[in-house]
């Protein structure tokens, strides 16, 4: 207060409220006023410092670095694009907080690109002060009441109403319809709202009101509504600037610069929340005593200062009042007399300042206003008061310009553009009522951001239309989400459905073992024991039926098992050619391997992992029942494949091989893991195909004589459900995949679980979602219509936690799919639903098996290990965990350990061969 100092000031002696000091002559008054207003001058250097500090604070917040309370907040708004102009429909908009003590309800009709612009209908409701300061529920009930009052008066059809909620306070948004209030500003201070989701609070209030069913689909900050409301012709505006009771701006930032977002493409709208900017370093020098006084008296001292309280319309009137009161008390104005009105907070409002500051209004209007405040207005007072108004407003406009210039610099940085051409949508009554505000702002922005060509577009209806635009986008996304959920719902299996699969599999196992009609063939494998560690010798092993065909040399010694192997390809035309061709190819590989390993001419015992359903009549006899997994070589089904191999060997001169055993890859895997862990009595494959085997009580195996001991049973569970027992779970996408396969109607369970099919199921779902317009803007691409283009390995890649959405997009773009970030997210969800169902079904199968073993042995608790192999199980980030969780849920009395087989089932085949050789040896002795 000392800045003015007492010298030369005179006041009317003794009158109440009048200054005791001598009153200055008029010319001194104006000087003293101007001297007082000097402190409202902000130099260009100071503005540049504020611009730089604000920019620094913005970039710090964008990097996600902790920022002091006095910084800007940089809040993502989940608005990813400016309007396409295609938005259409009727929307209700509720605006709360933009214009202080009033809320507004609008009915906005968007006509898309075709239609002309429809004027929104709106109604404003004054919010009683006790509602602005009372319990939050009261405020939201008040809002819901205004909504229904507004809708009652409207002749339109009010079914399926969709509402956009413009809530002009700092919020952490986690979605277009999820937003948590950080702190109240601008005269609001309702209890029980900060830290809560304001959309839910509004939904609850509308529900309590019960008059209308209204779907709140989006919550939007008023700056975003202002930006989005920019007329398509003139825009698009990429900055939204509001100066009303409060002030703030939003702008379109490159998503990759927003650390909290997992995005690298496209833009996202950021609400700067510059109202809380208060870096004392740069603002300290421009603060006046009036600013400090205002903050102390305000509803939220210390908060939203200084920036909002130096610019926002809620405070400008108060600043003017404080200056006038000060000058009056110094005898400089109003004859040195104040009035109760002049001394009471909030008596000078934004509108008053607008009128008084308006050069056209003229001194007369100022006189009238000051008299209304109970002041005796001297000749020069009106003009001096206008100086005060102009000084306060000019400072506000210049500070606002410094902030806007910081946003412009930020855009230049993030877009690496020297010259930036940009449109700024402006909204708020300070713009509407104070034409000088915009002109000062424009001039100052040109000063501070000379390389930016900025056009200012006043928003036509305070952003209501923009909020409707965002609501239209949100409604579209919400509709898409509903369609996505509906499409994926059949893949979400609950406990009862999984328990039913377990029970049906159990029933099919028993029937299969008895030789009754069952989709589970329960094939005896003639493997009666898991290895006991006494096996020894060198063995050849073949591994056919998985992703790769391998020939292995397996050396079993006291010190363990040493494996040398070579992968060979089986081209599709050979796998689907003649049986002779296929087995000749196999023998070629064996000969090649023997040559490379220096084994030529040696006739080592050979174990043949043949991963297809075979009815075995002995360890070395297996009749192929039917091909699976893309194999269809002719003249094999119904044949003993060991004979086919021996015939092929026979066709090849000078090759001697001693085929001792044929095993299924599940059995090979169980034996391979059983070598390390004798409790391993189950073998599981989840790869190209899927299947399981386990050690069954011989007494339960009708096809094999004997009541004691065990027999390993190859379940061939891939065919489970071929009798229709899984039809309740099968989706139209499963049917599409089955119909397109080379064995329709076969391997139902496998086609819902294994690697050969999951990618195709996903592709069919993506085609459906594209046809519904949910994905890829409804554009069907040739690529996506190509069979097997979506590899199952993509599921494993896309679902890996370490992969950000951006990498998901990269995978999909390689497929030539034009996608948005929302698309990538939806594709991820489709993959998750398909792989989760596969893993749960697999888990239900394993639960059926281990429960069978437990009950076979009449045990309360069973501890058992399961040997597992297969690319899908091994590579998918979540598959194995989901299988184990499902087994724990469905077979709680079984302690199940899953052992991933390191050496594949070739080793297992060699061990089966070794056991056979040992038993044969003992038999010969
Ligand atoms: C391993 C086993 C093979 C089995 C395959 C299944 O490679 O050694 O016997 O067939 O896994 O997995 P895949 O993903 O290759 O079909
Ligand atoms: C709020 C902002 C809002 C601005 C303008 C500020 O007080 O924090 O969210 O955009 O006022 O209404
Ligand atoms: C075959 C099984 C094999 C499984 C895993 C299925 O298609 O029928 O024999 O175990 O794939 O490879």
TrEMBL record:
Membrane topology of the entry: Peripheral membrane protein
Compartments where found: Mitochondrion outer membrane
One Gene Ontology cellular component: cytosol
Residues annotated as domain Hexokinase N-terminal: 35-230, 484-675
Record carries keyword Calcium: no
Domain of life: Eukaryota
EC number: 2.7.1.1
Broad class of the protein's primary localization: mitochondrion
InterPro entries with a match to the protein in the record: ATPase_NBD (IPR043129), Hexokinase (IPR001312), Hexokinase_BS (IPR019807), Hexokinase_C (IPR022673), Hexokinase_N (IPR022672)
Signal peptide: none
Positions of region (Disordered): 1-24
Pathway(s): Carbohydrate metabolism; hexose metabolism; Carbohydrate degradation; glycolysis; D-glyceraldehyde 3-phosphate and glycerone phosphate from D-glucose: step 1/4
Similarity section: Belongs to the hexokinase family.
Role: Catalyzes the phosphorylation of hexose, such as D-glucose and D-fructose, to hexose 6-phosphate (D-glucose 6-phosphate and D-fructose 6-phosphate, respectively). Mediates the initial step of glycolysis by catalyzing phosphorylation of D-glucose to D-glucose 6-phosphate.
Protein name per its UniProtKB record: Hexokinase-3
Organism listed in the record: Ursus americanus (American black bear)
